[in-house]
Amino acid sequence: MYKRKIKENIYLLGAIDWDRRLFDSLIPLPDGTTYNAYLIEGSEKTILLDAVDPPMADELISQLDGVSKIDFIISHHAEQDHSGSIPRVLERFPEAKVITTPKAKLMLIDLLKVPENAFITVTDGETLSLGDKTLKFIHTPWVHWPETMVTYLEEDQILFSCDFFGSHIATTDLFVTDQGRVYEAAKRYFAEIMMPFRNIIKKNIEKLEGFDIQMIAPSHGQIYDHPAWIIDAYREWVLGAPKNTVVLPYVSMHASTKMMVDHLLSSLVSKGVRVELFNLTVTDTGKLAMALVDAGTIVVGTPTVLAGPHPLAAYCAFLANALRPKAQFLSIVGSYGWGGKTVETLAGMIPNLKVEVLDPVLCKGVPLENDFIALDKLADTIAKKHSEHGFR
């Protein structure tokens, strides 16, 4: 696509990746993504903000046809989908200097072999004049790597946020046109890469409160021309209390665990507790991560395999431990044939979760009446805990 005008002398460049379905060999991309770069032509200097994933570098280079000079390239984040084609841009504009944080400079040297003399590092709050336009650099560590920053264009009140507030959607829309769709994609994005750093992101949101932000231009997804709602959404995801929701991921081999999960679900719903159910043999892990953002309780359902949890249940526990959701309670339900250490193994896999572990319910073989009674008791306990903590 050609470069697209956002405001006077400010343009969207980059590429739409319609076909990509997996990010970092881990994160599902059901709707593809975009790699957004931005060009600002000041009265004295011209600057490129970020680049694109290397396989799409040719598209970015073609969009720069007619641009006689680039004085600066901003690298907000060293990951390749944003900075991987910077060496190609430097080949085209060898006089350009790469502006980044001190930590990002070291990463870009390691990852992309950008020569050290190509860099200018900036401190938190430092400004740069392009003549009639002024950029302020704001360090935002752990959004979502330790070296990240964002840039605020003072005269136009635009925040160039890189991964902050991003969403994976392949679209030709320049601005957000379907808020519901973007909300879901942005929440998925937050859940998959931002949620582990909630406490630090809180400080970064507070940093931005002193700025008059009329537009947010992220490096993935559409531009927010009315950005208040996405900032409020981030505040809720980061600061909001857990909700009256149980996330119930499970796997069942011979239906015993499924019988228990189905009974627990019905019992919870009858007590006014919302349930998000995930069959781990078919689950989109992005959807599971989204559900974990708000969950008050996590209950893992698993059969016993070779004396421990099913590998899919173990992966689920590993994922939850890595994402560090704000859930406050956890339990385990499942079945076994002759014995094992399912509970001990799973409990040992979640050291990052600050949760109260509720009494698990395990049955030998198929569940019997006493097992269903125990599941009802677990549902009662969860409903009571949610009520006591004011989960809504």
Automatic annotation (TrEMBL):
Residues 246-392 form the Flavodoxin-like domain. In the N-terminal section; belongs to the zinc metallo-hydrolase group 3 family. GO terms for molecular function: electron transfer activity; FMN binding; metal ion binding; oxidoreductase activity. SMART domains: Lactamase_B (SM00849). It comes from uncultured Desulfobacterium sp. InterPro entries: Flavodoxin/NO_synth (IPR008254), Flavoprotein-like_sf (IPR029039), Metallo-B-lactamas (IPR001279), ODP_dom (IPR045761), RibonucZ/Hydroxyglut_hydro (IPR036866), Rubredoxin-O_OxRdtase (IPR016440). SUPFAM superfamilies: Flavoproteins, Metallo-hydrolase/oxidoreductase. This is Flavodoxin-like domain-containing protein. Signal peptide: none annotated.
